[in-house]
Amino acid sequence: MTGVGLTSPNGNDLATYRQNLLAGVSGVSPYEIRYFGATVAGQCDYDAKKHQSRKSLRRGTRAGSIAIYCANEALESAQVDLETVDKSRIGVYVGTTEHGNVETEQQIYEISQYDYDTSYWSHHHNPRTVANNPAGEVTLNTGITGPHYAIGGACAGGNLGIIQGAQMLALGECDMAVAGGVSESIHTFGIFASFKAEGALGEHGDPTKVSRPFDKERNGIVVSEGGCLYVLERYDDAVKRGAPIICEIAGWHVNSDAADFVLPLPERQNECMRGALAHAGMSAEDVHVVSTHATSTPQGDIQESGAVREVFGDSASTSINNTKSYIGHTMGAAGSLELAGNLPSLTDGIVHPTINVDSLDPECEVRGLVINEPLDRGRVDTILNLSFGMLGINSALIVKRCESS
C-alpha cells in the first residue's frame, strides 16, 4: 500500500480521521430522510467539487462521487502523477454493498410528482445504476484505461476490493491498483426502513452513543456513508519510483457461511480468520491488532466475539478494537475505512479503542479488548481486519509493517 484516500463521518483525510479516533470523537449525528423521518446517521462532508465539475456531479451518483474523491486523494497520497504513468496498466476495484437504490428511489419520487409519467424519467438512470458505476466513474474522472469493476461483497466489500487489487497485481493483470470500498447508503430510505423492520436499527438519546458495540445495552446499527480507496503496487515497482510505503499486504481469506440470509455463523468466521493466518504464514500470537466488524447488534456482536475468542483468546500479544463505535456502519466502505483507522498504529504503536462501552457485555468479553481509552503498545507490526456481510460472506485481511520500513 502506497497511498490512501478517504472520507468518513469524522474526517476527510487520514490524519484528521486518526486524530478523532484517538480523541474519541464520534461522527454520528441527527439525520432525517424522506418517508422514514428522524433518525441518526454517519454523514460525510467532503469537498466534492475538489475533483469534480458541477456537470459530472449532476450526472453521476453519490457513490461515484465518493469513489472519485477517495481515488484522487489516494493517488495524491501515493505521489502518483497520472501524466507520467501508463494508465492502461492501472486497475480500479471498488467494493460496494447495494448500488442504485438511491437513484431509483429518487427517480420514482420525481415521476410521482407527474402522475408517474415515465417521460420524466432521467436518461441518466441506466449508467447511474449499473453495478460497475462507482469504479467506472473513477476511470471517467481520471482517464485510467485499465480494468475496472465493482465487487458486490455486501459489508465485506471494502476488504474484498483490496483483496481483488492485490490478486490482480499478483497475476500481472495490472501494475497499480486503486482499490477499497465506498457506500452511499444513507441516501436511501429503504435501507433505514428495512433495518428498522428487522429490529436492527440502533437507538439512543444521544446520537453519538447509538453505535456501541460490545456494550450490554447495544440495540442496533447506525447507517453511515463513506469511502476509502488505496493505491496498491508490487514492492519492487513502489521502491523503483520512490513511493511512500504504508504497509505490506500479508494475507487474506474469504469464505461463506452458507447458513442464513442475515445471521452470522461463528464457525465460518473462525475458519476465515484461521485461513488468513495460514495464508500469511502467521499464528494468532503474531497479530498485534484485530479490527473487529462488530456492528452493535445484540446477536451479531456475541457471535463474532465468540469466534475471535476462540482464535485469539490465548494470545497475550493481541489487542482488539472496533471503529463502528465512532462512525457507524459504512457498509461497503466498512472494511477499507476501518483498516485505515488502524494503519497509523504501525507507525505510532497506539491502538485506538472501542468507545461507548459503558458496561461490557460479559458475552462479548475478549482478552485484549481495548475500551474507551487508547492503548500505547509501543510497537505494532501486524493488523488483522475483519469484515463480514449479509448472505454469509466473511473476509479477513492481514497487513504488516513493511520489512524495509
Which features would summarize this protein structure in a list?
Peroxisomal Thiolase, Chain A, domain 1; 5-stranded mixed beta sheet; alpha/beta; 405 residues; 2 domains
What is the structure about, briefly put?
It is built from 14 helices and 14 strands. It is of the alpha/beta class. It has a five-stranded mixed sheet, sandwiched between helices. Strands 8-14-13-9-10 form a five-stranded mixed sheet, with helices on both faces.
Task: Explain the overall architecture.
Helices cover 34% and strands 20% of the residues. The protein contains 14 helices and 14 strands. The model has no long low-confidence stretch (mean pLDDT 97). It has two domains: 3-240, Thiolase/Chalcone synthase (Peroxisomal Thiolase, Chain A, domain 1), CATH 3.40.47; 248-400, Thiolase/Chalcone synthase (Peroxisomal Thiolase, Chain A, domain 1, 3-Layer(aba) Sandwich), CATH 3.40.47.10. A hairpin with a 3-residue loop joins strand 2 and strand 3. With 405 residues, it is α/β, with parallel strands linked by helices. The strands form four sheets. A five-stranded mixed β-sheet has the order 1-7-6-4-5, sandwiched between helices. Strands 8-14-13-9-10 form a five-stranded mixed β-sheet, with helices on both faces. A two-stranded antiparallel sheet has the order 2-3.
